Amino acid sequence: MDIELGIQNVARPVSFSTDASADEVSQIIEKAMADNRTINLTDDKGRRIVVPAGALGYALIGSETKHAVGFGAL
């Protein structure tokens, strides 16, 4: 799952992939925003992404379906 987080006053978004489902990521972000705490996510390489909830501008959560690559998908 591809995730993109836009941070206020930062020109470039934070983009990464995670093994978590779209619902799990959405719940983590919603809970952090409601409690005004940090958003703690882990990417598929085991790195932790920590963003203050108040600094989050937007979150794009990619689809869970894998897209086919190559000519066989036509």
Automatic annotation (TrEMBL):
Keywords: ATP-binding, Nucleotide-binding. InterPro entries: DUF3107 (IPR021456). GO terms for molecular function: ATP binding. This is ATP-binding protein. It comes from Bifidobacterium lemurum.
